[in-house]
Specification:
Length: 405
């Protein structure tokens, strides 16, 4: 940025019109940024929220989920249906199909993109679920009560299977691992969730790898053939950062932008926020890459404060997410990887239970199924680093805040 550029003349360009991008633009205005703010989005739709896609939009209960933001009143320019192809930091310019876009400050908020099933591209009836267009293409599939095969028993697979069963579809979920959520939760925690599929009438097949997808069928590596009017792929997501190749912006092992604890990149005047960025967590002693809505909501405040020039905010949140699946409300807070103690509250065969993870006596993470009060209190206890009494924690009738050491 030129030394002659005044604060009121600074141009912030946000690439990505999802939650992280929109909230960054809004936070800049809320924190008094007087310059120009421009949000560039690859999709042509008005910016929208993603969680309703796997629920209300799929089931025809909502037409969309546009953010309740008056962009015009806030002086935020939207540049939609425009794909960014690259960035030249030395010139402070973005390259797009419609020509270059100059910036003084760039915020990378391009989120994540679903991993595609190898060999299935171009096969009729194969779907992803990430965008509004994806959800709208799947809605008539559910309405016609098709036989559906879901590949992947992660969060999105479970949520889609729930919606498909509610719509009356026959659903088979195939998972290469030995349990649902194999990459997200320890075996003893995820194992009870396998019964949820059968309870709602979905067929869960673990240790099941897809050999190929044919029109109207999925063939597993053991030779099994599963009828499939539609196939929905939910095998994970990766940061949408390919456009940054060669820019000098450092990318991590998962393709994410490597940001510092203020969400700055190593390139001057470039920030990264949301699903596409990792950050160092002093709380957990490792770098975190969080692909969840709350991270995209919280991070923008840190970015905006740094751009505006307020006292720098260190970004070290307690990660949080939730999932509605098979009639259950599942919430998770924290990061359990370094736990040395696991405490169960309630029977996992029942409708409501919680798992708490401790490290050196302090609560660092918890998973709450149908126990929102545990989650709310636990999140505060994680933030404060309070010591807990494992024996008291085991009593599900005792409030978490009264199970301290």
């Amino acid at each position: 940025m030129s030394e002659q550029t005044t604060t009121s003349q600074r141009r912030v360009v946000v690439v990505g019109a999802g939650m992280a991008g929109v909230q960054t633009a809004v936070a800049l205005r809320e924190q008094g940024f007087p310059g120009t703010v421009r949000v560039i989005g690859a999709e042509p739709h008005q910016p929208y929220d993603r969680p309703p896609l796997s629920k209300a939009v799929l089931l025809g209960k909502a037409e969309g989920s546009a953010f309740d933001v008056d962009f015009e009143a806030l002086g935020i320019a939207l540049d939609l249906g425009r794909e960014v192809l690259g960035v030249r930091p030395a010139d402070h310019e973005l390259d797009t199909a419609a020509g270059p876009v100059p910036y003084d400050v760039l915020v990378v908020a391009t989120g994540a993109e679903p991993i595609r099933l190898p060999g299935a591209e171009g096969v009729p009836g194969v779907h992803l679920l990430r965008t509004l267009d994806d959800a709208e293409r799947l809605r008539p599939v559910l309405a016609r009560q098709h036989d559906i095969v879901v590949v992947g028993a992660g969060w999105i697979g479970a949520e889609f299977a729930t919606a498909a069963r509610e719509a009356g579809c026959s659903v088979t979920v195939v998972e290469a691992g030995d349990r649902p959520l194999a990459g997200a939760l320890p075996a003893e925690v995820a194992a009870p969730m396998a019964a949820w599929y059968a309870d709602c009438g979905a067929d869960l097949r673990t240790h099941a790898r897809v050999a190929r997808v044919e029109p109207g069928a999925v063939v597993l590596d053991d030779g099994s053939l599963l009828p499939a009017d539609a196939v929905v792929v939910g095998i994970g997501a990766r940061p949408a950062t390919a456009w940054l190749a060669g820019s000098g912006v450092e990318l991590g092992a998962h393709g994410e932008v490597v940001a510092d604890d203020h969400l700055r990149t190593g390139v001057p005047d470039v920030y990264a926020v949301g699903d596409c960025a990792s950050f160092p967590s002093a709380r957990y002693g490792e770098r975190l890459l969080v692909h969840h809505w709350d991270n995209a909501l919280q991070g923008p405040r840190t970015v905006a404060a740094d751009i505006v020039g307020e006292a720098p905010l260190v970004y070290d949140p307690v990660p949080y997410f939730w999932s509605e699946q098979f009639g259950r409300f599942v919430q998770y807070a924290g990061h359990h990887a370094s736990a040395d103690t696991t405490v169960w509250r309630g029977d996992p065969a029942g409708p409501a239970w919680t798992v708490c993870w401790l490290r050196e006596g302090r609560l660092i993470a918890l998973l709450a199924v149908g126990r929102p009060r545990d989650l709310a209190q636990g999140r505060r206890l994680i933030e404060s680093g309070t010591r807990m009494d494992p024996a008291l924690l085991e009593d599900p009738a005792r409030p978490l805040k009264k199970a301290t050491a």
